[in-house]
Write a structure and sequence with these properties.
Blueprint: H1 11-23, E1 37-42, E2 45-50, H2 69-89, E3 96-100, H3 107-120, E4 124-129, H4 133-145, H5 169-173, E5 181-184, E6 187-190, H6 194-200, E7 205-208, H7 218-223, E8 229-235, H8 238-241, H9 246-253, E9 261-262, E10 268-269, H10 279-296, E11 300-309, E12 314-322, H11 324-330, E13 336-341, E14 348-350, E15 361-367, H12 374-394, H13 404-408, H14 414-426, E16 434-435, H15 449-458, E17 463-465, E18 472-475, H16 479-499
Parallel strand pairs: 3-4, 3-7, 4-6, 7-8
Antiparallel strand pairs: 1-2, 5-6, 8-12, 9-10, 11-12, 13-14, 13-15, 16-18, 17-18
Helix pairs in contact: 2-3, 2-12, 3-12, 10-11, 12-14, 15-16
């Protein structure tokens, strides 16, 4: 099946489309009519996506959230890392099957087919699934425009001219067949409910990114996950996971994420100030605990490979192992348990059944073990570096010197690479990070984080920064020691500033 060829968009038109998406507004054509579709470039693919026409992105079929770029970059690296790991384990295995169960426009799955395939040097079979007909039409159209050859040693046969600036869904639907199953190169497009698509056949890599909570889809993902498969889950209901609405977290994940207060009628009132300072890590561990319990119901165990938190989402990637023994290990009291937080004594304890102090509140249950695996994160780091280098090579295959497509090719962003570096640095750190700003004396600015970490290490304590909070550190030092060290560092910095000032300033 071939689509009619169209002239390539100019640089100005493409930039305008990207900016329109970033602003969350629809753009108008030269004749004044409003467009519902725009052309969007990300990484090494160029796709038709829906312009944001509503306040809720989930209500617009095929909408591509520009704020989720880091999430997609990390997923591209995770697929490449899983493919590398699978090839090292057994080189003669067939192509790795991957599925994006909520594909929307298909941009993430196509990045797997183009970027992850090249970076890992492994053959992938990518399934793009969505229930909305508009999304399937977009995914089919974009799959043809970003076709991938079978020979991974050659550059991808990307033809951006086939990714056309369609005005609306009606014009797009005229270009694609109304079919539930579509094959092109190494891309397969299906139109099914996510649970049905996951049960059709086993997949080596499963990606779930529903709009909102991932809780309703955990059983579907775990029930058919093969042995040593990788499952990536993104949850955007951060208000529940981070303790703003603890009643919602209790309903969806069976966990307590904040100390609840009630009104006169006994109804729960979400109070963000009653959540612990390490609420972001608590949300990650609650999600992992829910995944582990869902896996155990189907005689499967999990091992976290990568855990990521941003302002908009929580993303976790786990390896699934089949068998009752694996299920028992990842659902035992040593793997899933309670967390303790005291607002008076500043106690932060991970696991245990006994209350560490009289005022401590019980939170969770959630995952007690590590949030990542060093070997897998190292492979993701290598994939990110290769993606950046490969994008530079790909620009040489675009012969037109003024091509906007060539200028837009970038692979994984440098921001994502720095984030993976931070994940590697903190993966072996102590659980439940501390917020340094809470240990500063009243009226005194928090000292530089690097100075605090250096003082902790010199004092014989462990210390590393965390991506979960800009002022957070992972350390095994006691709250009293942290407060003392922060005070000493702040006083030393204040003395250095005063000595550097002219005479008479502090007299």
């Amino acid at each position: 099946m071939k689509f009619p060829c169209h002239s390539q968009m100019g640089r100005g038109a493409e930039v305008t489309s990207s900016r329109a998406m970033a602003r969350g507004k629809r753009q108008k054509t030269d004749d004044g009519e409003e467009e519902t579709l725009v052309v969007f470039q990300e990484g090494m693919v160029r796709c038709v996506v829906a312009a944001k026409g509503a306040k809720q992105p989930g209500s617009v079929p095929g909408f591509c959230n520009v704020n989720m770029r880091v999430n997609r970059d990390v997923s591209v690296c995770a697929v490449a890392a899983a493919a590398m790991e699978r090839t090292e384990r057994e080189p003669s295995l067939p192509p790795m099957k991957c599925i994006d169960a909520f594909t929307s426009s298909g941009i993430l799955g196509l990045r797997w087919a183009v970027e992850s395939t090249k970076v890992s040097e492994c053959n992938l079979e990518v399934t793009l699934n969505d229930l909305a007909e508009e999304c399937c039409s977009m995914a089919m159209h974009n799959a043809v425009g970003n076709s991938q050859p079978g020979d991974i040693s050659k550059p991808p046969q990307v033809d951006p001219s086939k990714v056309t600036p369609c005005r609306d869904f009606s014009s797009l639907n005229k270009m694609v067949p109304k079919a539930r199953n579509f094959y092109h190169a190494n891309v397969h497009v299906t139109r099914k409910p996510a649970g049905s698509a996951l049960h059709d056949e086993p997949y080596d890599f499963i990606h779930l990114d529903p709009f909102g909570s991932a809780a309703p889809h955990l059983d579907a993902a775990m029930s058919r996950a093969p042995h040593l498969s990788v499952v990536s889950i993104t949850a955007t209901d951060t208000a529940a996971l981070w303790g703003i609405y603890p009643a919602v977290a209790r309903r969806r994940y069976g966990a307590v994420t904040a100390v609840e207060t009630t009104d006169a009628d006994g109804l729960s009132v979400g109070v963000a100030s009653r959540r612990p300072p390490w609420f972001r890590e608590l949300g990650v561990r609650v999600l992992l605990g829910a995944i582990a319990r869902a896996a155990a119901r189907h005689d499967r165990g999990i091992a976290p490979l990568c855990s990521l938190v941003s302002d908009h989402f929580v993303q976790v990637t786990v390896r699934v192992s089949r068998g009752a023994a694996a299920a028992d290990r990842s659902s035992s009291d040593e793997a899933i348990g309670r967390f303790w937080h005291c607002e008076v004594c500043d106690v932060a304890a991970c696991g245990g059944l006994e209350r560490p102090c009289a005022h401590a509140h019980s939170l969770g249950p959630g995952w007690l073990g590590p949030l990542g695996e060093m070997g897998f994160l190292r492979r993701m780091q290598l994939a990110a570096k290769w993606s950046i280098d490969y994008a530079k090579i790909m620009k040489g295959f675009v012969t037109e010197p003024k091509s906007a497509y060539r200028d837009a090719i970038e692979g994984v962003s440098g921001k994502t690479l720095k984030l993976i570096d931070r994940l590697i640095a903190e993966v072996d750190g102590p659980p439940l990070y501390r917020v340094v700003s809470r240990y500063s004396a009243p009226g005194m600015d928090p000292p530089p984080m690097d100075d605090v970490l250096e003082a902790l290490v010199q004092g014989g304590w462990r210390g590393t920064r965390t991506h979960l909070d800009a002022s957070g550190i992972r350390t095994d030092a006691t709250p009293e020691e942290i407060r003392r060290i922060v005070g000493e560092v702040a006083a030393r910095r204040a003395g250095e500033r005063s000595r550097g000032q002219p005479r008479g300033v502090n007299e």
